[in-house]
Amino acid sequence: MNTILYPQPALRPPGHIEPCVDMLGRPLTDLRISVIDQCNFRCTYCMPAELYPSDYPFLPSSERLSFAQIETMARAFVRLGVDKIRITGGEPLLRKNLEQLIEALARLTTPDGRAVSIALTTNGSLLAAKARSLKEAGLDRVTVSLDSLDKGIFQRMNGVDFPVDKVLHGIAVAQSVGLNPVKVNMVVQKGVNDSQIVPLARHFRHTGVVLRLIEFMDVGGIGAWSRTHVVTSEAARALIAAEFPLVSLGEGKPLLHETASRYRYLDGGGEVGFISSVSQPFCGDCSRVRVSSDGKLFTCLFAQDGLDLRPRLDSAQGLESLLCRHWQRRGDRYSEVRGALDQVGGRKQYPTVRMSLVGG
Q1: Can you give the pTM of this predicted structure?
Q2: Residue 71: CA count within 13 A, CB half-sphere
Q3: In angstroms, rounded to a whole number, what is the distance separating the alpha carbons of residues 147 and 141?
Q4: With contact defined as beta carbons under 8 Å apart, do 286 and 258 qualify?
Q5: Could you tell me the CA-to-CA distances from 129 to 56, 126, 167, 218 in Å, in that order?
Q6: Residue 351 · residue 358 · CB < 8 Å
Q7: Chain segment 292-347, per-residue pLDDT in tens
Q8: Which tens digit of pLDDT belongs to each residue from 172-198?
């Protein structure tokens, strides 16, 4: 009688767990945590002053997730496959003692023993004073929002007359303490700051800073968004390439689970990226989940409702299975279906979660 030999199951490394994937087969790898919904800027595309006056009722500290709750949550997400955590806001550097949270998150490791990457997005206003302590606490990288080098344009866009020189100083300090590569995000709006595309590229070439240009998106609170205000990545790239020739690093498309299409300067001047959420949506491999400062989980930046995690963050019992089940039901692909949503005259007519609450 012939013996049937079945293949042996593949050996799994210690601590191995099967990846948690959503309805479109997208794995869960990136966690973005908003630690505070307050901001000291009133940027016109995020928190315009007419919608967020000085007496706006931001969350009191008692309603924000505590650092212990955030650590509990992050630990569960890491067990499910997350290996990149980004701290956001509001302006996260307004959160007191943020270094304590960074230190706790920096100790996390994936089931196969890899360190978890810890990054932070900031408007740069407090970065010079905080960069060294953040680095010493375990922060790996920082991204700074900077929409213009022109003082007048920058002050009008940030809504509080904050000087651009202080942000540039913060970037320099971040580089000096080793938070590299520093990335600079520029949100480009037609007729507002599109004149600054080439000046910013010129300024950061040969510095090690990676400039990324972001198409103006219809994020929370911006009811007046219109496609007519969008400068496409293709147009922005053409402006830069006309002066500084570019070479694609990924066939003109984002690498897997990344948001930016990356290019290098032909003369070795560094790298520049383009985030094309409007003209070339990348929902198909989006691996990001967001948790708001009051503890709600959002599976898309453009979501309206979130899953409240607070009741599960003190004991953590059943937390991993809850998070995975919620992700497995995810079918979000907002940017890909944006054109079919209810719009009048090209303007946004549908609600999304408040940007400062959920983070970018």
Answers
A1: 0.89
A2: 14
A3: 19
A4: no
A5: 27, 6, 11, 32
A6: no
A7: 999 999 998 877 788 999 999 988 889 999 999 999 998 877 666 665 554 545 55
A8: 999 999 999 999 999 999 999 999 999
